[in-house]
Amino acid sequence: MSERPNILLVGIDAQTQSLLAHSLKNAVVNSVALDLEKLMEPIHPEPKIILATSPSITMSVEIAQALRMQYQIPIFLCCPMQDGFERKDFIKNGFTDAFLLPMDINLLRVALNEAIAAAGADDVQVYRSVKILDLEAGETLDFDTSVFLPGNNKYVKICHAGDEIDANRLEKIKKGKVNNLYVPSSQLQNFYQYSAKKLRKMGQEGAISATERKEKLMTSVRDLLSGMFSSQTASFQSGQEVLKTCSGIVSAYIVDGAEGEWFSRIQQIIGEHGDNYSHSSNVSTLAALFSMGTGIGKPEELALAGLLHDIGKSQLPADIQELEQDHMRPDQLEQFKKHPEMSVNLIKQKKIVTSDIVAKAILQHHELYNGTGFPHGYYGDRICKEAQLLALADKFDHLTKLKPGQPLVTPAQAVQQLKKEQVDDPSKIKYNPEIIRSLLALFPTE
Ligand SMILES: [Fe+2]
User: Could you give the domains of the chain?
Assistant: First the structure.
């Protein structure tokens, strides 16, 4: 029988609770006000999961210590403020994970669902995506695999744990342009062991699977971006540190080995449920790959611009951050249009010294070839080539991300959609036709 585990909310306001309502309905919820002294005493009923908030960094350390002394259960922190947020430090202090709101709301929902499922609510199923190219047909898997049908917003099991994954079935799925399969979170460790064994068998001891590369990239980008809002006054040294982290991410997960597997890297990006961090890492990867393919700009510079292009968005009001550009009211749109400049300003504030090209590409990533973009409304080659490429990478990620209720858009379909922008009326051309032509030449025709 499925059990609804007790979850204790410490100081969580009504608005955050309503944002988490869908996850919390699978738990028995108890709320207490934030009172450090009371947290030192045993809490009844005994919680299986704790979600706490904190008004300050010092207090969050005290909360973590008070709770950790008594409980070896998942203890999460969520902070509505950005100042001083250092996820790694919170984890070091005893929290299982820490989330910055509103940016991390989806990640918090997933973490809560996973903890609720692990605490006994076996009717709650949480899936993680794995890359299909990490699986070998004809092998016995010790984890369940499912496909996600975006049209019906449904997961369908294709292979039960203990069964052999059928070659024909796998081939058919790959032909359907599916790049991700889904494994229950609780069985993810089995997948990691399987893929490590497979790489060892192929003589690639120490190599990581495509799934793990994507996950490591996502975690690094999350730590990088949420850490950028730290309140510590930025110094030349802290700016250098951030830049070093960026370069590390770019060389380890983005440009490394990408030349040899250009199209497969593009395929690995598409069709995922998107969030702020995956958008940054996807645009970074796509921009670097587009640069390699077209010879425009330097892949490392485009990757860096991709990582940082939208960081200014974090300073916009929460309601605007949640909306797609097409759904904004005119006043919200006006504010949204300031985010490229806000990104560049934040980079300066953090004393991150980038090349002029990187700053320009970020500032101009929403400019359009016909002059209808923002912030300046530049047209044609007044927009630097790197920004034009970054804008295409941004658009490509929006087109190919998984949208429940809608069929998946393949890379070839996305490129065809961009081709449609090549209309006869020059005043309607949003992207440089020459760049689109050279991109089209890089994609295999279906
Ligand atoms: Fe943007």
Answer: 6-118 (3.40.50.2300), 127-204 (no CATH), 211-440 (1.10.3210.10)
